[in-house]
Amino acid sequence: MVCGLVAGAWLGSAEAPTKLVAIGFSPFLISLGMVMGVFVARWTVPIALKGTRYVWQDLSEKPHLIVWAIVAGMLWAVANTLTVFAIRNVGLSIAFPLWNVNSLVGLFWGWLLFKELRGSAASQRLKVVIGAAAIVIGACVLASATAAGASQARHGAAALGVLAALGAGLLWGTMYIPYRKAYLSGMSPLSFVTVFTFGELGTVLTLAVVFDGGAARVLDSLKLATPALFWLFLGGFCWVLGDLFQQYAAKYIGISRGIPLSNTNQLWGLAWGALVFGELTDMTGGAQVLVVAGSLIMIAGAIAISLAEAPAAEQREWYSAMERECARYGLDRERVAASLMGSDRAHLARNSWRWWETLIIGAAVAVFVWLGLHAQVQAIAVDARWLLTLAAACLALLLGGGIFLWKRTRFC
Amino acid sequence: MKIALVKAMLTDPHLWIPLGVLAIGIALLGVLA
Hints:
The complex is a heterodimer. Chain A is built from 19 helices and no strands. Helices cover 80% and strands 0% of the residues of chain A. Chain A has one domain. By secondary structure, chain A is an all-alpha fold. Chain B is mainly α. The relative contact order of chain B is 0.11.
């Protein structure tokens, strides 16, 4: 539950740096820039936390999950590119809640394929379903408030934008199948994302080359976009931190509970937009009431889900789903079960630092510093007081959630 | 990867759901681009 809430904060905050990117770049290029930042972060965070030997050992014990991780990365990349089209055609305020249906898609797959919500009392199931529905409804209310006064997109373009947002929701919701599959097999989220990112970067790169006029043109566009790349990388880095917590939530409480909780990211996106960037200053009193109502509905939904702890009967169903994976792929049941409880002794200890780990982390830091030196400060009014407040709140959540997760699971 | 593992993966019905959805997503991108 804690992981789901921290994920919401950081996934929502990931939008803030991307707001500073000047418009005029193609959706494929924006997606590519962000995923390049994501790629750097996805390699460095696991190496910093657990080391290369740990990741390698985890992957070599479950090699079939490499394919699943790449498929998940491909799903993420295509969905992310669809969201750029959706934002372009119908705006963030309408697109965001539409792709947040991913929580309902994830809930459906969790129930159908991984026996989540089975065996629990009707009241527990109801809490999760009502909570997930409340988060989607809250998102729609927020959308209707923030959409007020926005310019009307062309009818055809708007329909395609809605289709793109719903498509992204379907892809992201389905991406949780590989997530859950990996975690029911005892894999650590840190190992999973290290491979996941190859599917992600490879797909975005291919899409950019195919749809943006060839490799040479993409390279030229990237050179032109250099002043904006730092913000995209920073957005990607924040996204990775949020996504890691989302992965841990999917591992320890399942996708039907973890994903709706992390979808509270819209509240954080709204907070950054309204308080730091002053996006809602022109809003009428009625629209502001809708914003408060939508936010309260989402918070109520998150609370309903967090109160619906999986009872023993449901956990037995999870165990049978885990046994299916063990039987099919020849995994050690006891170790996988221990990993699902965050107590796989074989994976708890971190190996000593190796010289290439320092090199990889140093290279990542150097990339960020270099991009930072070439970054162009965008002429956007920012409320520094709220910026510091929200940044401090996110850091406090990251620190608190990270320490809690470390104590309970050692990041396994 | 062992052949048995590849076979287990290819006959896993769970695999074909994400792959099918991925194909839908790529087709949608083709329409939008």
